[in-house]
């Protein structure tokens, strides 16, 4: 099939969002007469293709960096009604998305699967240990404030006092992220609990076998062809892929769409610029500011506003209330440090410094194959609490406050020291006997050691088999 082996037909890359998995090889074909047919053959998600081999399991890892917000004046907030002041602590880094897809089942032109969740702490990539202590919001108090009916708040106040709890708590990084025995709920509670040993899905995606323009498009999630969180046809639409890849031959003049189970909705991403990723041309797509904009700026977001009080009659920008898909818990998702958010979000909690450079989300997509090679998914998890005349620890709170707990940067890069680069070139005998020059950039992981380049050269390549670059 041309240079090196059958893998020279595709550029295999990384995954994003709820299906983050790294592809094993990176191949870029150049030569108009061979690109389309090769990609269309090898990009379908069916056994025996390069796409399937790399799609089914990870060959490298995704890392999730976490920064927790450490409250500096917890006592003054509770006793004097002071504005909370936070200080960012991190990163605490975990290896994630290293497990292969499971329960893979084919259905005509679709395939279903589960995405296993797993996280392994990486101390060498972190500022400290998981035993580091952080003062953060009491998740049980904030959650119960919204979930317990107001006529039972007197009972909630009694439980808070009897367990010697408060609005804030001091716990280890491990406990805050992955779970601890909560004295109020008498159950395990954590920002991401449960995680290890759980699954995201089922996902059902199109294989592209009948229509390559539909490859990787999500057809069902958890067995349903649409969401059920937002009570609106538009907001409940499953639109796009899981962001690990997109249909080939990407048109940068059009937005791309993907679904993220983290935020319980589909979003669009727009082209910003062309990047050079170690000699590979990629299209950088970013989440536009309109993603979490208020409905007055982006009317499409009207159906994502499900309550009027905290959102100030749906005028709040920069946050998404995901309570409808979190059992009603007062959980809000935003960009880190409330980037693109309403000013009062950063006035209600001091110490936040949003930065477009450090806090925006992007995907780097190879346009011929549609594979996502590099990405940075940056999100912040917040919870809400508010004033109360009954709950003692909230009596001095003046406003409904969307409080930041942790922000994450889930990344995958091509690190040069982890790959060996090969360049394959030669004359390919095309249609009508015309010689077509064909060049391929070929990256493979250096660990485990690579096998020697194929020898002799495959049929059709007349000189210079794959050789390591100097």
From TrEMBL:
It comes from the Eukaryota. The keyword Ubl conjugation applies. It holds the Pfam family CD36. InterPro entries: CD36/SCARB1/SNMP1, CD36_fam. Disulfide bonds join 235-303, 264-325, 305-314. Residues 447-470 are annotated as: Disordered. It is found in: Apical cell membrane; Cell membrane; Golgi apparatus; Membrane raft. This is Platelet glycoprotein 4.
